[in-house]
Amino acid sequence: MLVFLLRRLAQSVFVLIAMMIVVFFGVYMIGNPVDILISPDATPLEVEETMARFGFDQPVHIQFLKFIGNALQGDLGRSFVHGEPAVQLILSYMPATLELALLGLIFSVMIGVPLGVYAGYKADRWQGRAIMTGSIFGFSLPNFWVGMLLILIFAVELRWLPSTGRGETVEVLGMRLSIFSADGLQYMILPALTLALYKASLVTRLARAGTQEALMQDYVKFARAKGLSETRILVVHVLKNIMIPIITVLGLELGSMIAFAVVTETVFAWPGMGKLLIDSITTLDRPVIVAYLMLTVIIFIIINFTVDVIYTLLDPRVRVRGEAT
Amino acid sequence: MSAVETTPPPVDLGKRWRITSRMAGVAVAASLSMLLSGVGLPPLVSRIILLVGLIVLAAALLKGKYRKFFSGPSAYVATASLLLLVVLAIFATELSPQNPYDLRQLDIMDGRLPPGSTTFDGSMTFHLGTDEQGRDILSGILYGLRVSLSVSIAATLAAMAIGVVVGIYSAWAGGRIETILMRIVDFQLSFPSILVALMLMAAFGRGLDKIVIALIIVQWAYYARTVRGTALSETRKEYIDAARGLGLPDWRIVFGHLLPNCIPPLIVISTVQVANTIVLESSLSFLGVGVPITQPSLGLLIANGYGYMLSGQYWMSMYPGVALLAIVASINMVGDRLRDTLNPRLTR
Fold this sequence. Notes:
By secondary structure, chain A is an all-alpha fold. Chain A has helices at 2-28, 34-37, 44-54, 60-72, 86-121, 126-140, 143-157, 182-215, 218-225, 230-268, 273-282, 286-314, 316-324, and strands at residues 170-172, 175-177. In chain A, helix 5 (86-121) packs across helix 12 and helix 8 crosses helix 10.
């Protein structure tokens, strides 16, 4: 067991190093940031000075070694545009993304579970089919397009909800969050709904499959024999049993939620990590791009590692196969 | 078809259809290369050949299964709308009322007109309005449809080719090579495709060729995994043993027997995958890291009009969005029918 964990950990570290190399050299290829940092009519001397200040005058491999050295100390460089350390900058934008992703998860359960249970209950009727067809749309609709449509309907036409921005924030544990103020929550509804749509279709499918399976079980037959109402059977007995796999899958999907947030945040001008990334790409703010990618890679490696470990603990077959190779 | 066949045989068309479909394939390839290089037959003729070739190929794919494919009204609607959109994309140059990228045809005075307005001198009606530079939205959509479709189809085909090579090779070679290749595949699939694509486009910069490359890199692993699975189960079947028993060389077994049997499930997957690629491409273009401004896809058109939407000038991004929705939905629905028709075992 320990050997497996150690090997898995070594793999993760290897992946991290590989990603560092790929990301650094990838980002290094993007344009010349000096063109953006200083005015076009700067003297050659000023250009040279700026180059030296940011270390651009050195050869690539020296820059890379410096980058690795600093990265090991948790320093991924300073943002050219904001002048702050990149990691700190991203961490300050992170709460906004996380609260959005969290509300998105909650929405996707709130929408997906009832629809899925109903579709499973009426699997062969038109209601069930309609819900399943709808979930195909949820899978295939582009995220930004859904967001735009929601803005058009609820913000421009009906004027029920604000369209873009973050609204009033409340300071909780040193982080500025919108989720705890009524005004901020209003701003979150549309982006969170947009983000939730894809996951909601996933949850719908999971819940439908789970419900269909659960309805054939003996405990449902017993509950029916006791004369319980169908609603009670579905809400109390079936729901309890299908929630565990759904929550597991959603936990795994948190990472991809953060990735999809890039699009949603851009549509709604939500000041999170994703918007920061897109802004940094347009302004060629290399350290921020590198730091964002590295942080995301780390998040994903942690998620994958945790999942693997949990699976290994739960399912001995994985462990045996892992040791055999 | 022999009586002891245990698996569905490779697409068996019969001699006439085999020849016809090969000719259609050659015609499609030839007309495409003539269109891209700009030499040879006039573009209109090449486009007609392209369309006919594609229809023949689709007919060959469904040969003998039309009834099963068209088993409901939604199949007719989806096929008709997909056909319409493909025709619009192929003949965008001929059909659009204006060449939106020819600056001589644009007049900034016609900018941001609502749908149904006419030009200042009344010579042309903008049925879907104009954008901020006086471009006809309808023409922009037709051109954008072409960009979106061709980028996605090119990327999907190339990714499929790479995936097939890697998948079959690793299934055939086995051992260490297989382990290494599949580790790479696993590694790549553990990151969401939008993130990887974004990362690549950040490094490459905008460009049609660049987005195609990025979309290939994002997708190949998915095909490699699928093909490997199919190839592994196929290599265990009798016909491969029979071919081995005949003493055929490896390359003939792989190309002549294994490969044709791994393709049918891929046709279904790749259809749906084209739709996913269109969505991914349009998302990237919407974020401003996709296609260049000079050749906007539907996603970029939507992004361009997005800024005006809050002021109620909805048509600039609304109609390209409807076109995007139509193409994605019809491809998905056709793909769904194809899955039921060609490969009933494969259910998601």
